[in-house]
Specification:
This protein is 32% helix and 22% strand. The protein has 201 residues and is an alpha/beta fold. β6 and β7 form a beta hairpin. The two termini are 20 Å apart.
């Protein structure tokens, strides 16, 4: 019925010399996913990934411009039949001093619409993400699930080192771009739920 619609949004971590990573995130209404498996309500599934890294060099980006990146993001969204909108790292909303305005403005002009992930507190994001990952597979609580097609996620996230000074944090000198994009996906979910509660629904 109409109650079983899956919500989708994008989660994006921008890079040019570093890789850019964009996920198509699906939010389960509590039901079967495209793969026929059951996902508890409010679970997040990263169903597709666009990562602009050099083959076998997970820390090096391809140097794509925003128009090229946008074209690929729009194409990925078309394959899933979803709108190209979601959350991205706060840095792309800064006015960078050139006439075009922010990177986010440039994305908008190319048909990809982002709002800030509000990543201010990294630890909150990691804690939410850790909890969702550890709850994946439990039948009655939401979890974070990652499809096999998200190759860059699987190639980098499980191997990220912890920060030596803040063990709760991830060492950002490693290839943390997939982890960051996934963290924004998790923050967006928390924001969505909070807003939901506030509106008295």
């Amino acid at each position: 019925g109409p109650g079983t619609a899956w919500q989708t949004y994008l989660a994006h971590d921008f890079g040019s010399t570093a890789p850019s990573v964009t996920y198509v995130v699906a939010v389960s209404p509590g039901g079967e996913g495209p793969d026929g498996k059951f996902y508890p309500r409010d679970s997040l599934i990263l169903i597709d990934e666009l990562a602009t890294c050099k083959r076998d060099r997970p820390s090096e980006g391809l140097g794509w411009t925003v128009p090229i990146l946008s074209e690929e993001i729009v194409a990925m969204c078309k394959r899933w039949g979803i709108p190209a909108r979601g959350v991205a790292d706060d840095a792309i909303f800064a006015k960078s001093g050139h006439t075009a305005g922010s990177i986010a403005n440039e994305f908008s002009r190319c048909g990809v619409h982002f709002m800030p992930a509000r990543k201010a507190d990294r630890l909150t994001g990691w804690n939410i993400m850790r909890r969702l990952l550890s709850d994946a597979g439990k039948p009655d609580v939401p979890g974070l699930y990652v499809s096999r097609s998200c190759e860059y996620f699987w190639a980098t996230v499980p191997y990220l080192a912890r920060d030596q000074k803040r063990v709760e944090d991830v060492d950002s000198s490693g290839p943390d771009h997939a982890a960051d994009a996934a963290r924004y996906a998790c923050l967006r979910r928390e924001m969505g739920i909070t807003r939901h509660k506030l509106s008295g629904v």
